[in-house]
Amino acid sequence: MTGNELLKRAAAILQESPGGYAGYAPEHISLVLAETFEVNNRIRLSKGMEELPAIPALASLDDAVPYEEELAGLALPLGLACRLYADADNNAMLSLYKQEYAFAVNAADRCVARFE
User: Fold this and answer.
1) Phi and psi of 73, rounded to 5°?
2) Does residue 83 contact residue 31 with C-beta atoms inside 8 Å?
3) How big is the CA angle at 42 (ends 39 and 46), to the nearest 5 degrees?
4) Per-residue pLDDT tens over the stretch 8-54
5) CA pair distance 70, 51, nearest whole angstrom
6) CA distance from start to end of the chain
7) Pairs from 74-77 (Cβ < 8 Å, separation ≥ 24)
């Protein structure tokens, strides 16, 4: 998934066009990636993959989002929608989006036991 695809999904949640958000979307996506970094690494570990060494940041919407589909499919678009909708005057809808985001992140999360 690219930043553009993620932005399209988030805009669809808001029932808006992604064009108006394109200028500052990479920064918002990078914040959502930072918020969900540990969860994505737990998903990777549960699949026997190596953890990502650092939180990725998008320089452009054409960049790939290097997160697992379990997280990228629903949780990341909801997190981005929350960031994009934050300046709206509808606190009830923002609260709903935040609840859905938290639920999607928790649903994607995995427990991984580490033995030392």
Assistant:
1) -65, -40
2) yes
3) 140
4) 999 999 999 998 899 999 999 999 999 999 999 999 999 999 999 99
5) 15
6) 35
7) 74/104, 74/108, 75/36, 75/39, 75/101, 75/104, 75/105, 75/107, 75/108, 76/6, 76/29, 76/32, 76/33, 76/36, 77/6, 77/9, 77/10, 77/12, 77/13
- d(Cα 94, Cα 81) in Å, to the nearest integer? 9
Give pLDDT, residue 88: 77
φ and ψ at 64, to 5 degrees? Answer: -75, 145
Q: What one-letter code names the amino acid at 4? A: N
Q: How many residues does the chain have?
A: 116
User: Which tokens sit at 62?
Assistant: 């054409």
Query: 10 Å Cβ neighbour count for 2?
Result: 15
Dihedrals phi, psi of 2, to nearest 5 degrees: -100, 170
| Whether 42 contacts 112, CB under 8 Å | yes
Contact assessment for residue 84 and residue 18, using Cβ atoms and an 8 Å cutoff: no
